[in-house]
Known about the structure:
Blueprint: E1 3-7, H1 11-22, E2 26-30, E3 54-57, H2 63-73, H3 77-84, E4 86-87, E5 92-95, H4 97-110, E6 114-117, E7 129-131, H5 139-148, E8 153-160, E9 163-165, E10 175-177, E11 187-192, H6 194-206, H7 227-232, E12 259-265, E13 272-275, H8 284-291, E14 302-304, E15 307-314, H9 316-319, E16 325-326, E17 329-334, H10 344-362, H11 375-386, H12 411-432
Parallel strand pairs: 1-2, 1-7, 2-6, 7-17
Antiparallel strand pairs: 3-5, 4-5, 8-15, 9-13, 9-14, 10-11, 11-12, 12-13, 16-17
Helix pairs in contact: 1-10, 2-10, 2-12, 3-4, 10-11
Amino acid sequence: xxxxxxxxxxxxxxxxxxxxxxxxxxxxxxxxxxxxxxxxxxxxxxxxxxxxxxxxxxxxxxxxxxxxxxxxxxxxxxxxxxxxxxxxxxxxxxxxxxxxxxxxxxxxxxxxxxxxxxxxxxxxxxxxxxxxxxxxxxxxxxxxxxxxxxxxxxxxxxxxxxxxxxxxxxxxxxxxxxxxxxxxxxxxxxxxxxxxxxxxxxxxxxxxxxxxxxxxxxxxxxxxxxxxxxxxxxxxxxxxxxxxxxxxxxxxxxxxxxxxxxxxxxxxxxxxxxxxxxxxxxxxxxxxxxxxxxxxxxxxxxxxxxxxxxxxxxxxxxxxxxxxxxxxxxxxxxxxxxxxxxxxxxxxxxxxxxxxxxxxxxxxxxxxxxxxxxxxxxxxxxxxxxxxxxxxxxxxxxxxxxxxxxxxxxxxxxxxxxxxxxxxxxxxxxxxxxxxxx
Length: 438
C-alpha cells in the first residue's frame, strides 16, 4: 500500500495531500487545529488565508496568471476552491476567504484516502513525509528541522492588512473604479490631494509600532513590506507603491488624484474591504488614528487591524532538489512558503508538484520533470539552485521562466507567447499519459 504523511493543512499541505490521495496514496494529514492555532490563524478551517484575500492576476500575460492556469489543468484543489468562491476584482482573482477555506476543508475531510490527525506534529513521522507547516511552524518542529538541516533556516517578518466595514466608508469622498478602466469597477478608491498625502505620509512614518523581538527594517521581506516602513523610506515611496494614482480617474475632478488608497472586497456580500498594500505592524491605536486620515475612512469601522508575525524559510538551494526533497534525506520533502516560494498561489503550486511527483515515485513511475519553460517547473528550479547571491523568497515571475527561442516584440506579446508554450507542453504531456492523471 502506498502511504505518506503530510504535516500542515494550509494551502500547500492541502494541495499535496489532495494530489497524493487522488492518485491512490493513503495520506495521514497532521493539523494542530482546533487544539492550537498559530499567532496568525483564527479559523478552524483548512487553507486559511491570513493576509489578503487576493490570489493576484488571473491573466496569462502575468506569470502568476500562467501558474494558476497550469494548476487548473492539473486539477488543483486550491484553484477549484478559488474559482468556486471568487469575488469581482477586475483582472485579479479574489475570493470570499471563509467560503474558500470551507470548500477546501470539506473536500479534504470527505476524501476516503485522507485521514486527519488533529494534533501538533512535534517530530517527523517515519516513511515518506511532506512538511508543509508553513512560515509559522511551531517551535518544537522548527527546532527538529533546524537540527536536520544544519541550522540553515532563515526567518523574516510578514504582515497583514486591516479590514474595514463597507457601510462605514464615506462614498461621497471615495468612489468605485478599476485602474485604466480595466475590467469592472470593483475597487473602492480614496483619493488624496498633495496636502492630504503629505500629512498622511508624515504621520505614518512617525507612528508607533507594536513590539516584536528582533524586528528591524532590514529583516523585513521586501515583497511584503509594512506600509509604515515604506513611508520612512522617502516622501514619494508610497506614491510609487500601494498609493500609486496612475490610471485612476477621480470622477469628481476628471483627473488622476495626487495619491490614492485602494480597498478590495474581502467577502461575497461586499460588506468587508481590505486596504490594499497596507500590511502593517503599527499599534492598534496608531492604526486607527493614522488610517482614519485617509479621505473616506474618517469614520471607518476597523473589523480587523493589521498585525505582523514571524515567518521562517529554508536556504533551499543548499538543501532541496527540484522535487522539493531534502538532499540529505530524500524521504523528507517540503512544500509551501517554508521552501522560499512566496505567495498563496506559489505555495499551493509547490504542494501540487510535490504531491504529483511523490505519488509517481511511490508508484514506481518516472517523474514528470516539469521543465523551466513552465511556471511550476521554473519555481522548482529557482528554489533548488536558481537563486543568485543570498537566497530570498520570491513570487513567480517571467524572469525565472526559460526565455523564448525567437524574438517577440512587446512585453505583453512576449509574455503571452511564453504562456502558450507552457500550456502547449502541458497539454502534450497530459496527452502522452493517455488519460492517466499526471
